[in-house]
Write a structure and sequence with these properties.
99 residues, alpha+beta, 2 helices, 6 strands
């Protein structure tokens, strides 16, 4: 299981996020996605902890807590959705001929 952490300051580092979650147990991994063009942190991240109990304790304690001037959004991460291919119906104009 992974924890989603949203509304993060753009100044956050993996080390600082690790330190906050380490108060609730063993942190296995911290991931902060960055913008491809600017390299800047995107304002959210993911944390994996040692046990489900540690993850639940961290979520309960940190969801809505203020950190670095922002109210954190902390919950269980949902699996990445399949967004499909780019373009939707591009190249397939059959929808125009239905009516």
């Amino acid at each position: 299981m992974s924890i989603y952490v949203g509304n993060l300051s753009y100044e956050v580092t993996e080390e600082s996020l690790n330190a906050v979650f380490a108060e609730y147990g063993a942190v296995k991994r911290v991931q902060l996605p960055t913008d491809r063009e600017t390299g800047r942190v995107r304002g959210f991240g993911f944390v994996e902890m040692g046990t489900d109990a540690e993850e639940t304790a961290a979520i309960d304690a940190l969801d809505g807590a203020e950190w670095m001037g922002r109210d954190l959004k902390v919950n269980k991460a949902k699996p990445k959705e399949d967004r499909g291919s780019f373009g939707g119906n591009r190249g397939n104009n059959n929808f125009r001929n239905r009516y």
